[in-house]
Amino acid sequence: MDTGATDNFLLIDDADRLGIAYEKGQGRLKTINSESIPIHGVDHNVLVKLGEWEGLINFSVITMDDHPVILGINFLDKEGVLLKPNSNTICLDKEGEFHAVHL
């Protein structure tokens, strides 16, 4: 989880390995204190399972050094995610039922 990131990002190597059919992109991404990097593509409605929770998430496919996937603030807000940093856990709301996922 990255509460400083707006969107969701997936490492290009993992997208290729998982057979995710992303649409080729032309944009670039600039983060604080780094060079801009190309956005290799975008995939909409990727089925993701986190513990017992599952849902569809949109991802921008990029090259990253430090994380294979980043779920940004748009995901956290849309899914009503509760963060529990003291236990490294998130709680996801699915149809009124919360599912805890240890990260």
Give me the count of strands: 9
Helix content: 10-25%
Round the Cα radius of gyration to an integer and report it.
14 Å
Count of folded domains: 1
Characterize the largest beta sheet: strand count, sense, and whether it forms a barrel: 6 strands, mixed
Estimate the global geometry from the Cα principal axes.
Answer: globular
**Computed structural class:** mainly beta
Mean model confidence by pLDDT: 89
**Ends: how far apart?**
9 Å
Return the string of H and E elements: EHEEEEEHEEE
Beta percentage is: over 45%
The tally of helices reads 2
Q: Note poorly predicted spans.
A: none
Helix-strand blueprint:
Blueprint: E1 9-11, H1 12-17, E2 23-24, E3 28-29, E4 37-50, E5 53-62, E6 69-70, H2 73-78, E7 82-84, E8 89-94, E9 97-102
Parallel strand pairs: 1-5
Antiparallel strand pairs: 1-6, 2-4, 3-4, 4-5, 7-8, 8-9
